[in-house]
């Protein structure tokens, strides 16, 4: 587990920074507008959203080592060619790169579900969510720092190298994707029809994942807008860092608790504490306001990952984690435009309100769907045998 988390940390940090690296290349390398850079970022994000479940399904059917080398090679080709691509071809190439992105996050979550017994799974996913927060704090900041001191093309090469290294490391580790006695995903008994597992419970998890990342990406934009209005935009990085550190602390604390809370409760609380953050008009008070929201972020994300692993049968774990990753990517992509519109028609405080309401709406959806699921007879519990290799 330690080796897997260490290698995946490298890959996740690079993937988190990929959008920023492409943005810096378009703005500084091609001397184009931020709107044009947003087009490339949207193309990459769309590819990520569509490619997640497809790659997960391939891993379920063919095994990890049949899929990872292909994605690693395609990523190497893309990132090596970024500095020589004009804008038009770069749009198409970014979409293709998103489709074939090294599936670091889904593979890590699927391996955690395979390697940990039920009693330890929540703590393991809490640690994984902490890893995600660290990659979110470190990745974009490193790209911005490097872009200020070297060519944006070289920065793109560095991101590509880190993604390739992370994917290669996971392929060499070859973590188990299924527990020992679970059926082969490629067999008829190992792959149940989608209608049997993509029910109300799984849809609730996907909806809450979308709502959570919509809220989180909206918070970032609202922070920047608030501080820009107050002439303190240089402190935005500090406030966002405080948000990330608070999330790390919340994830570690939540992983040590003896009993979990329902995902919709955590997401509802996160939405509620986000709305009044718009009342802060100074970077110091904004740090205090986002600390509470940050403390709930990693626990919310970890409970969703845990829930998805429990709801998906062994033969479709890869597809299920890919769907969850796609839902979260879609939330990140849509959160900023939604909150940006709220800011434009009202004030920066409206951005926090829009982000919080998006979280509350997703929590309500998850609550209603979860209650619908709770009235059904419980599914047979998964056995916890020893883990086996993916191929």
Automatic annotation (TrEMBL):
It comes from Nonomuraea longispora. GO terms for molecular function: transmembrane transporter activity. This is MFS transporter. Coiled coil: none annotated. Residues 372-391 are annotated as: Disordered. Residues 381-391 have a biased composition (Basic and acidic residues). The keyword Transmembrane applies. InterPro entries: MFS, MFS_trans_sf. The lineage of its organism: Bacteria, Bacillati, Actinomycetota, Actinomycetes, Streptosporangiales. The chain crosses the membrane at residues 9-28, 34-55, 67-85, 91-112, 156-176, 197-227, 233-254, 261-277, 283-305, 349-369. Keywords: Membrane, Transmembrane, Transmembrane helix.
